[in-house]
Design a protein that fits this description.
Strand content: under 5%
Radius of gyration: 21 Å
Shape: globular
Number of strands: 0
Largest sheet: none
Structural class: mainly alpha
Length: 393
């Protein structure tokens, strides 16, 4: 009988509303620091090795954050003891963030142990939340296995360096992300409106990193070239916001809400948000790196890594949007796909012209795409927005 009250309190704290809570926004602030540290790591080591390390770290961070987006779609994060555990998880993510730049060096073990605590708190809350739900408990059991394997591999990787360390990181990420795919999606619970909004907000957070990169790249200086590059950087970030939030986010959230509750809805959420959004976030982070270098060296030619980060990051973002749409409606946006491919072909050109000219070309191309799509939508765009907003309300 003594064990009943805790289970009852957590069971009674199931999420009911669809809006993201203030605590969830507060929680995500630590993730902002982690993303910033990833960009800083790649900026300090502008090599293909540094780029690979930054992306591997981003993969680990993303999947750790994704777990909490599913968790807070089940329970109210502001209820009682849950709030305290969330604070403890934030503290561990802070240690993770501070370890990012040495995650493949002297702080490799610290990074692994801190991310392990962060994931353990997530699993523990899920176990408690599923006390009266056997289906959810079975799903959490599978997640526990894949999480333990991933964290164990990260701890093991801290004993190595070079290719062996990178390979262990890659295997850890693969097993971690593959777990929910192979263990099935039947038992998970989902509040679709909250889930979609939470991922939309994390896209805004990532876009905020691109704004921060502009300021860091300027390093307190301002002349005509830096001013022009900064304005172009804002317009590039605004274009990314437009391509996601103008129509795509609203329609996708509506489709998720209309999906059959259970396995169908859970798999759609897993594939289009948990998996595909990693491409979107990674693209923004890479673009932020390219912007940072461009602002600081606007009158010079970009080297291969920053050129790939700027144009390849933008291409990866567009490919993420193409995949996002395909998973929801099974059609391909050929215009965005074509621009993504074109940007990849422009990378060699970017190493032969000034960084400012490269940035200008990228901004012009994506805004031409937006203008073309806006014209193509016609009256349907406003109809889409009204219907999606009404459904969300």
């Amino acid at each position: 009988m003594e064990a009943t009250p805790p289970r009852h309190r957590l069971s009674a704290a199931r999420r009911e509303g669809e809006r993201v809570t203030p605590l969830e926004l507060f929680f995500d602030l630590v993730f902002v620091l982690a993303i910033t540290q990833c960009t800083a790591l790649m900026s300090h080591d502008q090599t293909w090795s540094g780029l690979a390390q930054g992306l591997l770290i981003l993969g680990v961070l993303w999947w750790a954050w994704v777990g909490y987006s599913w968790l807070t779609s089940v329970i109210d994060p502001e209820a009682g003891v849950v709030r305290l555990v969330i604070f403890a998880a934030m503290a561990s993510m802070l240690i993770v963030s501070l370890s990012v730049q040495e995650a493949f060096g002297n702080l490799a073990l610290t990074f692994a142990l801190a991310i392990g605590f962060y994931r353990t708190a997530h699993i523990a809350l899920f176990w408690l939340a599923g006390a009266d739900d056997n289906d959810l408990r079975r799903s959490v059991a599978g997640l526990t296995v894949s999480t333990a394997a991933a964290v164990g591999l990260l701890v093991l990787a801290s004993l190595f360096d070079g290719l062996a360390q990178g390979a262990l990181w890659g295997l850890a990420i693969f097993l971690d992300m593959a777990g929910p795919y192979f263990f099935g999606a039947d038992g998970w619970k989902l509040v679709p409106g909250h889930f979609a909004e939470r991922h939309g907000l994390i896209v805004i957070i990532a876009l905020g990193e691109s704004i921060v990169a502009i300021g860091v790249g300027a390093s307190g200086a301002l002349d005509l070239g830096i001013g022009i590059a900064a304005v172009l950087g804002i317009f590039l970030a605004a274009a990314l916001w437009w391509t996601y939030f103008d129509v795509v986010a609203l329609i996708s959230a509506r489709r998720l809400g209309e999906a059959e509750v259970g396995r169908v809805q859970n798999e759609l959420a897993r594939d289009s948000y948990s998996y595909v959004h990693l491409l979107i976030i990674a693209g923004i982070v890479l673009m932020a790196l390219g912007l940072k270098v461009t602002i600081g060296h606007y009158d010079e030619r970009l080297h291969d890594v920053p050129a790939f980060a700027l144009l390849g990051g933008l291409a990866l973002y567009l490919l993420g949007l193409v995949a996002f749409r395909y998973r929801h409606v099974h059609t391909i946006n050929r215009r965005r796909l074509g621009l993504a491919i074109g940007l990849l072909f422009l990378i060699p050109v970017a190493t032969a012209i000034s960084a400012l000219l490269t940035l200008t070309i990228a901004v012009v191309l994506i805004w031409v795409l937006i203008a073309y799509e806006h014209r193509g939508y016609g009256p349907k765009r406003e109809q889409f927005r009204r219907e999606a907003s009404a459904a969300r309300t």
